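Structure first, sequence second, as always.
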């Protein structure tokens, strides 16, 4: 009988596939025509890495407090519904702890503010180096729960009035990021409907944006009241695909709502 993976296995297991081995595997398959000879390519990669390890001594050029992390490549493509080992990755150097952080701690800045400032910094640094981090990356890097990361990101977006460049926004994991979902994300980032109109491409009428905003607010309200996704879909005449995307946005910005809704455990954003 097949064992079902736990939520943590589903969320954090793929992070173990962010390796140099899989970067080379992608290179052999996509650039050198080994798509029909994957086993042969993997054997070659194993030999190559063993040779490198045997003949080249590692020399770290990292500064104290920095870490190298494998990020999903920001290459203009979506990589939804793929195993991590099949997704292009790029190494990024991240400032996990900076001198400014330590100075701020010494001056009495709260750990909460520093933690949120660091999350924004890590996301910005990854994007500047051609990569994007998911919330699970941030949770693993900072040893913080994914729920807390989502809550911190939502607060930073409200405070700074911008969308942070995490994978859920830069490379939306749904099949398409509809304008309705874009409105929901901008609404959560603190923008009012008139400004959202100007930020959408192509631009939308204020009436349309207000309708989309109210639709998302209705979904959030029904989730808060404990309704099941199937019930919400029926009440609002909402297709399941769009509702799943809305639930994903709620998970990012209001994880406590999903935790209180017994119909959305253990994996709130997916239902069939």
């Amino acid at each position: 009988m097949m064992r079902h993976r736990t939520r943590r296995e589903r969320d954090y297991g793929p992070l173990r596939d962010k390796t140099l081995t899989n970067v080379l595997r992608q290179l052999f398959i996509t650039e050198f025509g080994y798509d029909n000879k994957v086993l042969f390519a993997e054997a070659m990669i194993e030999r190559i890495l063993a040779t490198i390890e045997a003949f080249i001594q590692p020399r770290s050029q990292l500064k104290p407090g920095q870490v190298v992390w494998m990020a999903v490549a920001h290459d203009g493509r979506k990589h939804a519904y793929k195993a991590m080992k099949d997704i292009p990755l790029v190494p990024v150097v991240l400032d996990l702890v900076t001198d400014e952080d330590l100075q701020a701690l010494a001056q009495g800045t709260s750990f909460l503010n520093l933690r949120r400032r660091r999350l924004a910094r890590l996301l910005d640094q990854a994007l500047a180096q051609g990569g994007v981090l998911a919330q699970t990356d941030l949770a693993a890097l900072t040893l913080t729960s994914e729920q807390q990361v989502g809550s911190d990101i939502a607060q930073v977006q409200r405070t700074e009035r911008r969308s942070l460049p995490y994978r859920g926004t830069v490379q939306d994991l749904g099949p398409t990021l509809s304008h309705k979902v874009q409105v929901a994300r901008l609404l959560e980032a603190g923008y009012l409907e008139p400004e959202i109109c100007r930020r959408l491409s192509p631009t939308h009428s204020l009436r349309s944006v207000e309708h989309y905003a109210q639709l998302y607010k209705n979904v959030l309200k029904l989730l808060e009241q404990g309704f099941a996704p199937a019930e919400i879909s029926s009440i609002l005449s909402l297709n399941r695909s769009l509702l799943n995307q809305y639930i994903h946005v709620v998970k990012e910005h209001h994880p406590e709502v999903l935790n209180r809704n017994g119909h959305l455990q253990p994996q709130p954003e997916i239902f069939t």
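Margin note: The CA atoms of residues 54 and 157 lie 47 Å apart.
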